[in-house]
Design brief:
18 strands, 267 residues, Diaminopimelate Epimerase, Chain A, domain 1, 6-stranded mixed β-sheet, 4 helices, 12-stranded mixed β-sheet
């Protein structure tokens, strides 16, 4: 089967976006891994399948499926708008996603209401709490958890640059308390309206940017009274602007998207 695809990225978080044929079974994990190979395939953090009716599905580079992807949703909206300002609604496994496409590839999306219930993540805990603590091989770690349509653990650190992402990230992901694994964010609060963030993503590893990770960090920090309503989140690949009024409100996120190239591929 020959497919047309487009390669896009949101602040370096890169995707292969494909209009998936109606009625066709989703790709097997092995195919996703082969397409995601950065030497023998297209190469990406995630594969985005756009289905009829504005529905999309997200498959991480390891072949596993994810319920949501903030940068991916913004890239899909930008591609559908084709350079024109446009308001539209997409549909994901996590529910509807409102998108506002502006000029020069800037896209805002509504990621819904952050859900701090442990069962929503899922995370094994006796009760909901502002923070949790686990013992890892590298030592104890304290964090908050939140679902943004996919699972997130947020660790507040003194320095994002110095954080032990490569050890703590995979250890926390593999912990039995996270039965579906988890995205792990390392957030350094610089001011009430600004933070630095690195994210070790489930099924990918550390990425240059993570949209839902930025949302999770702001939601967790704001729930603890540490952040204002609007926060600039500086990631290795660039800055996302996040706005969340607080408990029960929907969270909006704005940032740049870039189309890299289009192509055809036989699968």
């Amino acid at each position: 089967m020959r497919l047309k695809f487009v390669k896009m990225h949101g602040l370096g978080n890169d995707f292969m976006l494909v209009e998936w044929p109606a009625g066709e079974k989703p790709p097997e994990p092995d195919l996703v891994r082969r397409l995601g190979d950065r030497r023998r395939g297209v190469g990406f953090d995630s594969l985005l399948l756009l289905e009829p009716g504005g529905r999309y599905r997200v498959f991480n580079a390891d072949g596993g499926e994810s319920g949501q992807c903030g940068n991916g949703a913004r890239c899909i909206a930008a591609w559908l708008a084709d350079g024109d300002p446009l308001d539209l609604e997409l549909r994901s496994a996590a529910g509807p996603v409102q998108a506002r496409v502006g000029k020069n590839g800037v896209v805002s999306i509504n990621l819904g209401v952050p859900d701090f219930r442990p069962e929503a993540v899922p995370f094994r805990a006796d009760a909901e709490a502002p923070g949790y603590r686990l013992e890892l091989p590298s030592g104890p770690v304290e964090f908050g958890v939140v679902s943004m349509g996919n699972p997130h653990a947020v660790i507040f650190v003194d320095s994002a640059a110095a954080a032990d992402v490569e050890s703590i990230g995979p250890e926390l992901q593999a912990h039995r308390s996270f039965p579906q694994s988890v995205n792990v964010g390392f957030a350094e609060i610089e001011a009430r309206d600004r933070l630095k963030l690195r994210v070790f993503e489930r099924g990918v590893g550390e990425t240059l940017a993570c949209g839902t990770g930025a949302a999770a960090a702001v939601a967790t920090g704001r729930a603890r009274g540490l952040l204002d309503q609007r926060v600039a989140v500086e990631l290795p690949g660039g800055t996302l602007d996040v706005e969340w009024r607080g408990k029960g409100a929907e969270l909006w996120q704005t940032g740049q998207t870039t189309k890299v190239y289009e192509g055809l591929i036989e699968i």
